[in-house]
Amino acid sequence: MSEDNPEANQKQVTRRDFLKLSALGLGTLALKPNEFSNTTSDKEPTNLPEPEDLLCVKLVDREHPLEQSFIKEEIEPELKPLSQFSPEGFLRRADVTGKVRIHSLVVQPLEDLLIASSIAGVDIKVRSGYRSWEEQELIHKREGEDNKTSMLPGTSQHHTGLALDFTTLSIGNVAKEGAGFEKTREYEWLVKNAWEYGFVISYDRGHDGITNESWHWIYVGKNVAEYFQALRKNGWESDVFDLQKAYLEKRTSHPIRPERPVGGGGKYKLE
Ligand SMILES: [Zn+2]
């Protein structure tokens, strides 16, 4: 293991993983080519697909904060620490702090993403996942209330357990401004492939003219990510927050079916 030669280290890990995956017969599965099954001609979000879970399309931002009780009662019981998984497995090895917790909805998709990216020879790690109200409060205080990108407790996508900060060894396993994640092969791989596993980037193309975070991605479910990808391909310029806003508006005028979401037992509300 050498910090000075991350390339060599990456290759070692990759070859070992690939051998293991080949033995499991998983290599061909994860190597299937990217294909759109969603052939929407939508140029804006009008024919929204059913979300896997309403939490996946829940808008969380400054104007739509989560309540502290929602985070405690609805999200926290669903959290899975990556450290609980097998040390040999991809999930635990991707956790660079040993403290990352994610929503149960993301466990399988994240593992699939890690396997596929590892086969492709890139080294994706996870710097952070779920963040509690108290943790966000500390960050907000530390960054200072005047900082334009500092977010109040309740307003961070990390509270859902569906947002992840990705990183890689070649930038020192950090996820922050100036670290250069956007210049890595890992970022390039995510841009091309993450939608296939249900992940989309939150802040790109100057989301609000201030925030631009190459490392911050959110799980919206495969069909929604695929739809989002198709919209973008058709020239839609907006971001995932706008897509979630469209779900919120649809919810207000016509209820999204099924009323009881598949994964969440009907407990999430969009409002
Ligand atoms: Zn983040």
Task: Explain what this protein looks like in three dimensions.
The chain has 271 residues and is of the alpha+beta class. The chain has a domain at 6-26 and 66-221: Muramoyl-pentapeptide Carboxypeptidase, domain 2, CATH 3.30.1380.10. It contains 9 helices and 6 strands, in the order αααβαβαβαβαββαα. It has helices spanning 6-24, 27-30, 68-75, 90-94, 104-119, 133-143, 185-193, 222-233, 240-253, and strands at residues 79-81, 101-103, 125-128, 163-167, 199-203, 213-219. Strands 3-4-6-5 form a 4-stranded antiparallel β-sheet. A two-stranded antiparallel ribbon has the order 1-2. Zinc ion binds at residues 158, 163, 165, 216. Zinc ion is lined by residues 158, 163, 165, 216.
CATH architecture title of the domain at 6-26 and 66-221: 2-Layer Sandwich
CATH topology of the domain at 6-26 and 66-221: the name is Muramoyl-pentapeptide Carboxypeptidase, domain 2
Order of helices and strands: HHHEHEHEHEHEEHH
Cofactors and ligands:
zinc ion
- Derived from helix and strand composition plus strand pairing, the structural class reads alpha+beta
Please tell me the overall pLDDT: 84
- Round the Cα radius of gyration to an integer and report it: 18 Å
**Taking strands numbered 1, 2, ... along the chain, how are they ordered across the largest sheet?**
3-4-6-5
Q: What distance separates the N and C termini?
A: 49 Å
Shape: globular
Tell me the β content. Answer: 5-15%
Q: Please describe the biggest sheet, giving its number of strands, its sense, and whether it closes into a barrel.
A: 4 strands, antiparallel
GO molecular function: peptidase activity
Domain D-alanyl-D-alanine carboxypeptidase-like core: 101-222
InterPro entries: DD-CPase-like, TAT_signal, TAT_signal_bac_arc, VanY-like_core_dom, VanY/YodJ_core_dom, Zn_M74/Hedgehog-like
Protein name: D-alanyl-D-alanine carboxypeptidase-like core domain-containing protein
